[in-house]
Known about the structure:
Radius of gyration: 24 Å
Helix content: 55-70%
CATH topology of the largest domain: Rossmann fold
Number of domains: 3
CATH superfamily of the largest domain: P-loop containing nucleotide triphosphate hydrolases
Number of strands: 10
Mean pLDDT: 84
Shape: globular
Number of helices: 16
CATH class of the largest domain: Alpha Beta
Low-confidence stretches: 114-118, 134-139
Order of helices and strands: HEHEHHHEHEHEHEHHEHHHEHHEEH
CATH architecture of the largest domain: 3-Layer(aba) Sandwich
Strand content: 5-15%
Amino acid sequence: xxxxxxxxxxxxxxPGMFAGRLVELDAIDNALVQAKYDNSxxxxxxxxxxxxxxxxxxxxxxxxxxxxxxxxGERLHFLTVPLxxxxxxxxxxxxxxxxxxxxxxxxSMLAKAKLMKIADFVTRLEVAGTRLHPAxxxxxxxxxxxxxxxxxxxxxxxxxPEHDGVCILIDEADSAGAEVGALLKTVVDGLARAGCGxxxxxxxxxxxxxxxxxxxxxxxxxxxxxxxxEPLEDDERKDVVRKGLAEARxxxxxxxxxxxxxxxxxxxxSDGYPHFxxxxxxxxFDADSDQHITVDDVLxxxxxxxxxxxxxxxxxxxxxxxxDIRTPSYRSVLGxxxxxxxxxxxxxxxxxxxxxxxxxxxxxxxxxxxxxxILRHPEKRGEYRxxxxxxxxxxxxxxxxxxxxxxxxxx
Length: 411
């Protein structure tokens, strides 16, 4: 019988496999409960790639819809609008997509309930959406925000009391330009001015989403409770693996166990990044042949052809190296840092290894820091590190091949 692999790299994990993040979940629960009672509190989830932002929003959606209860045991019932922002989307497009999703859900409610207030609302929503739709004209920022605020406030009235309110969950908000950040700030501010406290907005993005929201006004981020995600603790990492194995057992009746040192290795290799935990556990589970995962299974799954490290490289790191990094000097810097894993390396050491001088090295370090490809030391000037050990392992495998293909030699 084919094995059912319970681990899902690259996809938000189900609430049943979610581990850790109790502080963040409690904050999101509170934001939703407050909105139910017309006292909305909005939240902003930030963190590096693969840190679990999408999974946290996925759980938030399940709580908002009532699929799972809050940590306090309360069941909520929000009309929920999940949205993933596309690269370089405009504020008009984002606003229109939110309104389209609201309309589709209210259309469904109309078909089921035949409520006249919903029918009247849907008509007005179509009119409001039309104001955002024409491609030949770009609405002013304030017009876009005002139209969206009006539509959301009207939605709250139309769907009460069957629904607690409206929950908008926007993932990868950093993918778009600063104007979308400004839209979010303006909409949240507009909801407050309109006294519409039953709409809660949850946003997730890389740390630079903070700057994009501030770009509209310095006070923009004060409208959100900021929830920065850090890597999971060691016990939480192991809990993710244990929950996955328990899910496989419950589905198939076949139990797969894992040796303590193998569990330690997955926890260590993952650096606490949920996506990495899923990938390493997925490939270790796949490599296992006797329903007992060992260190050898973890290593085979990680380092074999098309194994965990290669898969993570394709899914995450390829975009960083080949889309965001255009010049050989940038890759030369990464090659100099890779042997140190995720430990800090001084600028002087990088200069010594690469031979890069002056503005060339400074610009490379600055550009990659801004893109979160490398991280600056928070206290020591001139020290940098790679975000994860996995990134370092992948770089050590791929950069020599890339250098040879480009005729770059060792640099």
